[in-house]
């Protein structure tokens, strides 16, 4: 029987409001791709990213357009050529991984690593707000070992100091989401170094980050919006110390593994991150992140409601997916 692809748009409420330098949202809008062979089904989830011009409607249409190729048996390697990197390919690629695992009875992790996956310590994200509001968030989560702090606006120095004081036992990742400028990047980085910040993520806009080659990296700098696929990496040498791999940017686990391996060859540290999505989106990323220096897979922790069954979180520790969820 030919493989049949179906697509659905879903919305999951966020617990409160999630704010970064580019805006706020109160729900996670996701696209779910399901591929069935008539006996078993595989699923993949993606989050269209407005920063790259993706919309729910366009991503759904792109997935539907590949349905004839799925019916004819296209494999994941060929999918890399048939669809561009991005959210749509991510959903299809991850659905194929899940389908293959369920058809063969062999868990997906067997094709990713030589060792069974282990629970990972994930960062927990604090939304952008006033220094006082961010300090309150930090105090509420001061028991978490790793906090990711959304910044990228005026008064970031006060935000950094407030969060550091409110959660002195937590390591911090600062994520500016391209919100700093050439005028303030060195001052902000100096404060981050003074306060013992572990990592700074995408301080400057992608394509406007050449200055990073000429300033001291007292804190390691991680590329996010500046890196999507393996071919982007050569241009980042000398600018960044680490790369944030997200399946929605790379276009699936297959491409993300290529990016991961090439990044390690070039000497970049690895961070595996996510958009705000459900456990279905995080599941393949947990496999990818097994040897990452930084893990940021807290999407379900930010939701008021997750999928069932979902990933198991114990504090900041996320366990590998069970087959009923994915893989």
UniProtKB/TrEMBL annotation:
Mg(2+) binds at residues 175, 201, 224. One of its GO terms (molecular function) is metal ion binding. Belongs to the mandelate racemase/muconate lactonizing enzyme family. This is Dipeptide epimerase. The active site is at residues 150, 246. Its cofactor is Mg(2+). Keywords: Isomerase, Magnesium, Metal-binding. Binds 1 Mg(2+) ion per subunit. It comes from Pseudaminobacter salicylatoxidans. InterPro entries: DgoD-like, Dipeptide_epimerase, Enolase-like_C_sf, Enolase-like_N, Enolase_C-like, Mandelate_racemase_C, Mandelate_racemase_N_dom. Residues 131-222 form the Mandelate racemase/muconate lactonizing enzyme C-terminal domain. Its EC number is 5.1.1.-.
């Amino acid at each position: 029987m030919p493989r049949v692809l179906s697509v659905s748009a879903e919305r999951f409420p966020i617990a409160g409001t999630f704010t970064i330098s580019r805006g706020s949202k109160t729900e996670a809008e996701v696209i779910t791709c399901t591929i069935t062979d008539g006996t078993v089904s595989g699923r993949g989830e993606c989050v269209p990213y407005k920063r790259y011009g993706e919309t729910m409607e366009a991503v759904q249409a792109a997935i539907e357009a590949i349905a004839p190729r799925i019916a004819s048996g296209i494999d994941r390697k060929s999918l890399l050529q048939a669809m561009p990197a991005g959210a749509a390919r991510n959903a299809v690629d991850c659905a194929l991984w899940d389908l293959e695992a369920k058809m063969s009875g062999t868990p997906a992790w067997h094709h990713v690593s030589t060792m069974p996956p282990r629970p990972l310590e994930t960062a927990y994200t604090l939304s952008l707000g006033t220094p006082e509001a961010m300090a309150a968030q930090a105090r509420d989560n001061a028991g978490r070992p790793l906090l990711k702090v959304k910044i990228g606006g005026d008064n970031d120095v006060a935000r950094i100091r407030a969060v550091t004081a409110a959660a002195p036992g937590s390591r911090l990742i600062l994520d500016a989401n391209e919100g700093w400028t050439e005028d303030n990047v060195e001052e902000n980085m100096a404060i981050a170094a003074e306060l013992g910040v572990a990592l700074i993520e995408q301080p400057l806009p992608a394509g406007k980050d050449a200055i990073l080659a000429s300033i001291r990296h007292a804190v390691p700098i991680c590329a996010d919006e500046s890196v999507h696929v393996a071919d982007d990496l050569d241009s980042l040498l000398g600018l960044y110390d680490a790369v944030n791999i997200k399946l929605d940017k790379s276009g699936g686990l297959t491409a993300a593994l290529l990016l991961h391996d090439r990044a390690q060859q070039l000497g970049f540290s690895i961070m595996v991150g996510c958009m705000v999505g459900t456990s279905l989106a995080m599941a393949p990323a947990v496999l990818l992140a097994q040897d990452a220096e930084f893990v940021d897979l807290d999407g379900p922790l930010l939701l008021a409601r997750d999928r069932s069954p979902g990933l198991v979180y114990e504090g900041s520790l996320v366990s590998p997916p069970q087959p009923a969820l994915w893989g």
